């Protein structure tokens, strides 16, 4: 009898731990810029710099559920100053505490942080600029998981004991332990097989096969691997939100062929590299159009989002890792809903031309750039001493291996053209930032120019783009019009970086920076 109980206990442990995410520390967090402010405050702004869960950074600007109408990305930070109250909601795993780094300044308002239904409100107002850390203790769901586990085992033992007491000692002696154990394991296997098979057949992420219903998942990092594996293309478009407004049909017309956009908002170079590798391994590709975002280049070469927002298991070829998808609670529910002709809240209908395109969601113009700009942040932000090193390591570790492994693929890189306001902003913080960027870009050119299958474009010298604020919604994000211009320039090979023009390009940008009247720009905002 003790042997049977021991076996049953082991099986119970396995059952509980198979779907361990249900019993680990999964939390729901909601951060709300309430729109309320201190009587002395000049505004109700909320600047979110960094979120740490158990000491691990979670980049807030990469949250896929970000509402662009209410929150804006500023140099990897999130800012709310309009359309308030404005909320961010997401889930994460953690065990003890959360630390949120926010800004305190004369324009700061109230922020409400709600975790698992328990909320706290903070007044961020301070009569001087500063950065403040807010620490919030979490309800440790590990204890809840342990409690659930204990209850599960207790009732299981009761059931097992009742079963054993109902049979005689003679019958117990005749039990074939191997057959009994095999039966239990078979039941467990069948229990897992049914939902996994449902996810495989329905395939809400189109991970195994393309769907004809044009219904896509809202989060690019989850949807793109399926597109790369199962859709037809010979060209791919890679990058951050700066590349989301490319129209594949326009690219096809200009460059000939069939293109697929695989952009990921707020993505790091490491994530983009993984996406590119998957696409190159999935389809015969002749061209990679890759937008190099200066903000992405300055991040660590190995940085990716946590598994809750960047599912690495969808980007590799390990079949066993597919279980993370097939047995994922969310996709089991989504598959069941789809079988009942009910799409989940995270799915929408679109065509590949408009998929993840945000051009129609914003207004563009100098007034909107001015409205989004906050000069007080100059006193908070600092020069990053690791910028040049991160530029170099991102190229060497995440880009050059792909170039060398695919000599028959043409790699077309371009720097996403930030507005002159952004460059002037960096100049106001520290002129050496501009020098660091210039040196970093020069090193990138020297490394990439060694390869015959590489082109690098830089539109910084084009004053009609960088100084034309009518095509920007903020200091870095430009309209679909510029994406079209970039493709047309690539076709004509205009603004191609060469040893003969690299200095003049940087000189022209520096001239624009010095000529830009930041005082006028700020004063117009104040008026």
From TrEMBL:
**Keywords annotated in UniProt:** Membrane, Transmembrane, Transmembrane helix
**What residue intervals traverse the membrane?**
146-168, 180-202
Task: Write down what this protein is called.
Answer: Uncharacterized protein
Which organism is the protein's source?
A: Paenibacillus alvei (Bacillus alvei)
């Amino acid at each position: 009898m003790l042997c049977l109980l021991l076996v049953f206990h082991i099986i119970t442990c396995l059952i509980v731990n198979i779907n361990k995410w249900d019993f680990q520390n999964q939390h729901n967090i909601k951060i709300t810029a309430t729109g309320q402010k201190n009587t002395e405050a000049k505004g109700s702004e909320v600047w979110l710099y960094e979120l740490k869960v158990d000491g691990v950074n979670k980049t807030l600007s990469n949250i896929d559920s970000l509402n662009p109408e209410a929150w804006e990305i500023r140099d990897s930070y999130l800012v709310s100053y309009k359309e308030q109250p404005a909320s961010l909601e997401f889930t994460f795993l953690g065990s003890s505490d959360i630390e949120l780094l926010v800004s305190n300044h004369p324009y700061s308002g109230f922020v409400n942080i709600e975790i698992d239904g328990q909320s706290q409100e903070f007044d961020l107002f301070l009569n001087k600029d500063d950065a403040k850390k807010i620490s919030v203790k979490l309800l440790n769901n590990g204890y809840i998981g342990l409690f659930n586990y204990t209850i599960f085992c207790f009732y299981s033992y009761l059931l097992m004991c009742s079963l054993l007491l109902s049979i005689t000692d003679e019958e117990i002696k005749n039990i074939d332990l191997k057959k009994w154990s095999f039966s239990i394991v078979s039941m467990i296997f069948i229990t897992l097989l049914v939902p996994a098979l449902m996810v495989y057949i329905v395939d809400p992420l189109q991970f195994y096969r393309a769907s004809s219903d044009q219904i896509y998942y809202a989060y690019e990092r989850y949807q793109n691997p399926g597109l790369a594996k199962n859709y037809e293309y010979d060209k791919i478009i890679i990058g951050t939100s700066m590349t989301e407004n490319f129209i594949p049909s326009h690219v096809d017309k200009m460059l000939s062929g069939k293109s697929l956009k695989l952009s990921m908002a707020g993505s790091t170079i490491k994530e983009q590299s993984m996406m590119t590798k998957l696409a190159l391994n999935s389809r015969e590709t002749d061209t990679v159009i890759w937008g190099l975002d200066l903000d992405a280049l300055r991040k660590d070469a190995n940085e990716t989002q946590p598994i809750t927002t960047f599912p690495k298991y969808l980007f590799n070829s390990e079949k066993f890792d597919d279980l993370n998808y097939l047995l994922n609670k969310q996709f089991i529910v989504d598959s069941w809903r789809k079988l009942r002709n009910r799409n989940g809240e995270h799915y929408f209908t679109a065509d590949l031309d408009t998929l993840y395109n945000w051009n129609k969601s914003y207004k563009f113009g100098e007034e909107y750039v001015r409205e989004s700009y906050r000069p007080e942040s100059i006193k908070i932000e600092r020069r990053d001493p690791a910028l040049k090193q991160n530029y170099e390591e991102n190229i060497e570790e995440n880009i050059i291996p792909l170039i060398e492994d695919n000599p028959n693929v043409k790699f077309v890189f371009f720097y996403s053209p930030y507005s002159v306001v952004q460059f002037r902003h960096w100049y106001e913080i520290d002129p050496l930032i501009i020098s660091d960027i210039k040196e970093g870009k020069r090193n990138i050119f020297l490394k990439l120019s060694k390869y015959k299958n590489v082109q690098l474009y830089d539109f910084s010298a084009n004053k009609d783009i960088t100084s034309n604020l009518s095509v920007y919604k903020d200091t870095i994000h430009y309209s679909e019009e510029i994406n079209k211009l970039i493709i047309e320039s690539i076709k004509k090979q205009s603004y191609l970086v060469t040893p003969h023009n690299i200095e003049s390009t940087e000189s022209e940008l520096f001239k624009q920076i010095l000529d830009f009247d930041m005082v006028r720009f700020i004063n117009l905002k104040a008026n």
